[in-house]
User: What shape does this take?
Amino acid sequence: MPRVPFWAQILLGLLLGVALGWIARSGDVGWLGAVLTRTGEIFVQLLKLAVAPLVFFAIMISITNLRNVHNAARLATRTLLWFMATSLIAVAIGLLIGLLTGPGSGTGLSAESAAEPQESGSWLDFLTGIVPTDVITPFTELHVLQIVFMAAVAGVAALKLGEKAAPLLSVGESVLALLQKALWWIIRLAPIGSAGLIGTAVKDYGWQLIGKYATFTADVYMGCALVLFGVYPLLLATVAKVNPLQFFRGAWPAIQLGFVSRSSVGTMPLTQRVTERLGVPKEYASFAVPFGSTTKMDGCASIYPAIAAVFIGEFYGVSLGLREYLLIVVVSVIGSAATAGLTGATVMLTLTLSTLGLPLAGVGLLLAVDPILDMVRTATNVAGQAVVPVLVSARERILDRDRYAGAGGFDVDAFEPEARPAAATATAAA
Assistant: This one.
């Protein structure tokens, strides 16, 4: 039988999910709705199951790999600065679109639609939550920022120990390879998972309610499209001086997987592969991509909170001024790590709302369309996580431009995570 390309499997999954969700809602088919809900939940749970150990070992190993990179501190600093610069551009675009379109006025929604979120964020929680109280809780309760902190400490300590840390790094490299293999099995289930997720959204809210968010949904998609197909290509052409179309040809497998999986961390192995295929040195890519997968969120932490804040302010009749807009920019640029690379951006949005003094109950207004929005948000995140390493590599003159020019797309279905042998890690640590 002919093989169905992965993108076609995804498309079929989305169409099937919409159809089944509509049948479950219009025909009041309880068992079908339960199946869709459980299918989506299991897919997300499987992704979350791999997140904690994957983030820890990926960050730790990536830091130790910087030992083999010339001017590692300079590369890390420039990577962080470009993360912040692109986030600044993205949040500015989000604010501009929100102010021009007025997404929160005339929606026909009632206050009964609002609800306090189960998870919320504040600056105090964000700042004090970086350092864990113990080494177990961050993994059991999935506090990704704390996991990143512990992994960074372990990676720096391993660099200082040198040869004594070689056995530990060899084990870490093997565990990371194992996790990436298991994660790839989960990713192969994305067509089924996407059917469950989109079907549940249609089943729970229906087209009539979703239609009330038409302006807001269009704003988020427009903002992400401007960043994805406007800002990024412009930076690639002017800063890196490379062909933007070639970037999308090489990075598209990761972007499409991010769209469906709604998880930057879940897409991380594929994002790293396409980044390396675009000519970024492997040692640098193995640092920049894992780091970006947990902190670089132009879609979830910049565009979306900006438009959502305007939406909620208009809904409650709260006038936002220049001070509030500047606060949105600050929160988006500094607090993006709070999104943690998982599905959804509730924590980042509540952090923004609490800073502005807007009602947190407004988050409940947006739950109806969140799964649909999360797709394009995550795709934008993933693209940015590949763009920045290309920009930095080009500026530092370590980008393999011949490899970049020859990078072509490949079927995600044929992708297999690759890992360096443990011996190579031990040598790198020596």
Summary: The chain has 18 helices and no strands.
